[in-house]
Design goal:
single chain, 262 residues, mainly alpha, 2 domains, 15 helices
Length: 262
């Protein structure tokens, strides 16, 4: 992509940011890894991926952790299931005063993931032997996972299932000819595109969603050629503090301010 060639400093800084977060655990995977059984780990990754909507990632981790502590491992799908009131109370206790539009839907999502586990068990066999397109299609059975042709949450779920630790569970897969690994749409990448000025240069605001997703993949490949999913993973932390104490987004803003005053 021409813009990348014309702005090597920005790409270099961002690639370093991506590398610095490669070994940082995915927050959803971190909760799921507390389970001992692979079946439970997969199930909790699916639940966390489905709940990832309109809530900051650190707060989502707190909510998922609270749910796991209250209804650990196989309690997600074994009877008797938690009641709506129990689930809502747990969520509200964890999220405090944050206004989360998805809150009232959490019980339905919880039960739907449990139903999926009961229907698809053993999940390890399903995950290892089903082509990616089939996995994305099957995940559409879960409430709030998405029904459209493009399913961002389902793609994130596959990344968390199959990426190596600590970004994912590192599940083994059979070699299926022609199988294409989906790369998650890093929503925070939109903020990066606007911040570095790329959006205005390439007319990002006027692009349709398929073109934006294609651009997302191109940028992720440029930032992490060996595995573009690493870049998508890192951009989850775009607004989160780095080891230096400031977020990468703030770091970039400071760099541009310095450039403008030179």
């Amino acid at each position: 992509m021409q813009w990348e060639k014309e702005h090597p400093d920005v790409m270099k800084e961002t690639a370093e940011f991506v590398r610095s977060f490669e070994s940082v655990p995915d927050p959803i995977v971190a909760v799921a890894e507390q389970a001992k059984d692979p079946e439970a780990k997969i199930a909790w990754v699916l639940l966390g991926s489905c709940l990832s909507q309109e809530i900051p990632l650190p707060l989502l981790q707190k909510v998922l952790q609270a749910l796991y502590q209250k209804f650990p491992a196989e309690r997600l799908w074994t009877f008797p299931l938690p009641t709506e009131a129990e689930i809502i109370e747990t969520v509200r206790s964890a999220k405090k005063t944050f206004a989360w539009p998805v809150e009232e839907s959490v019980p339905g999502i919880f039960w739907s993931v449990g139903n999926f586990v009961r229907r698809r068990t053993p999940l390890t066999g399903w995950a290892s032997s089903t082509e990616y397109k089939g996995i994305l299609r099957d995940l559409g059975e879960i409430f709030f996972m998405g029904k459209s042709a493009y399913r961002p949450k389902a793609i994130w779920a596959t990344s968390r299932l199959f990426s190596p630790a600590p970004r994912g569970l590192g599940l083994a897969r059979q070699n299926i000819p022609g199988d294409i690994i989906p790369v998650p749409f890093a929503f925070e990448l939109r903020s990066w595109i606007g911040l570095v000025g790329m959006g205005k240069d390439i007319g990002y605001a006027n692009m349709d969603e398929p073109r934006k997703r294609k651009l997302n993949l191109s940028i992720c490949k440029a930032l992490s050629p060996k595995d573009p999913r690493v870049a998508a993973h890192a951009f989850q932390f775009f607004e989160e503090p780095m080891p230096s104490g400031e977020s990468f987004s703030r770091h970039l803003r400071d760099l541009f301010i310095q450039e403008n005053y030179r």
